[in-house]
Amino acid sequence: MTEPVIRPRRDDDLPSCVRALAGVYESDGYPAYWPTEPKHWLTPTELLGVWVAANGPEVLGHVALTHSGPVLAAAVGLPEDQLAAVARLFVGVPARRGGLAGALLERAAQAAVEGGRRPVLEVESGAAGAIALYERAGWQFVCTATANWLTPAGEPAVVHTYLGPA
């Protein structure tokens, strides 16, 4: 088996991305709700870039970079045009513990910086593994807020905002 590579996502990667995401959803409950159209969910609006960790045709992980929007900009106190949001970051269950999540996070953050933007993200407060990853990678905790969506338990979601290294 060859080493996984991180590369820009292609359209023909989407079925494999959806299969990996389905395993993550079943294992971890991410995303909080299974999207009606997972291929569209993996391609958010305002997309700046999207990458996969792949071993041949098999997608092992995924990350997207988008425009930040006003809520994140207000949370970190920087203009929207100076930020890029890391989104849709996941690694399939069988591919975990090999550093792929950190490598995908680093790739998206690098693209943000190369584009003259500071990386930023939100994470649901119960995602302890993701939070530990961000903090190990040097991301700075900014604040905690109540999100505008409900958890599967019907409670308002609580999210932490992190600002990536410059």
The geometry reads as globular
The low-confidence parts are none
Task: State the end-to-end distance.
Answer: 35 Å
Backbone structural class: alpha+beta
Mean pLDDT, all residues:
93
List SSEs in N-to-C order.
EHHEEHEHEHEE
**Discrete helix count:** 5
List keywords for this structure.
7-stranded mixed beta sheet; 166 residues; 35% strand; 5 helices; alpha+beta
Architecture overview:
- The protein is an alpha+beta fold and 166 residues long.
- The chain has a 7-stranded mixed beta sheet with strand order 1-2-3-4-5-7-6, with helices on both faces.
- The mean pLDDT is 93.
- The chain is 30% helix and 35% strand.
- The relative contact order is 0.16.
- The protein has helices at 14-28, 38-41, 70-76, 100-114, 128-136; strands spanning 5-8, 47-55, 58-67, 83-91, 118-124, 140-150, 156-163.
Element layout with pairings:
Elements: E1 5-8, H1 14-28, H2 38-41, E2 47-55, E3 58-67, H3 70-76, E4 83-91, H4 100-114, E5 118-124, H5 128-136, E6 140-150, E7 156-163
Parallel strand pairs: 4-5
Antiparallel strand pairs: 1-2, 2-3, 3-4, 5-7, 6-7
In summary, what is this structure?
This protein is α+β, with helices and mostly antiparallel strands and 166 residues long.
